[in-house]
Design goal:
This protein is mainly α. It is elongated.
């Protein structure tokens, strides 16, 4: 089985920001908590990947900036998800920070 990209491959900060923009567009169209949860996981996964040894190796000189961008974009996306959940009458309790000390 080959690689499957839901949005696009990631080559740096610009791609992380673009993918999160695409996720936020999907958030605006989401109608269920399950859809919002899936979108939250996708944004969180980008942060997780920035901490993976394979990405640290592949993006040596860029990984610190990529982590920062992924965390910033995750926060924006999670806030958008919470706003959308509220509008839909759902619990707006999605984490807006990644990692310990949330």
């Amino acid at each position: 089985m080959g690689k499957r990209h839901i949005y696009q491959s990631v080559g740096g900060v610009t791609d992380i920001r673009e993918i999160n923009r695409k996720i936020r567009k999907e958030v605006a169209r989401a109608k269920t908590r399950a859809q919002l949860t899936e979108l939250h996981k996708r944004s969180m996964y980008l942060v997780t990947l920035c901490h993976a040894p394979a990405w640290k190796e592949a993006f040596r000189g860029k990984i610190a900036k990529m982590k920062k961008a992924a965390q910033e974009e995750f926060t924006k996306t999670a806030r958008a998800i919470n706003r959308s959940a509220e509008k839909l009458g759902l619990r707006a309790d999605y984490d807006t920070k990644w990692g310990p000390g949330r």
